[in-house]
Amino acid sequence: MDHTFFLIEHFSYLAVFFFSLFSGLFIPIPEEIVLLITGYLVKSGVIHATPAIIVAIIAFAIGDNILYELTIRNNKHVSKLVHEVLSLKFIQNKREMLERHIGAMIFISRFCPFLRFIAPVFAGYVKAPRKTFVFFNTLAIAIYVPFFIWIGYFFKDSFGQIVLEISKARHLISILVLILIGLMISRATDYFFNKSEN
Question: What are the angstrom distances between the C-alpha of 25 and each of 31, 43, 54?
Answer without folding.
Answer: 9, 27, 21
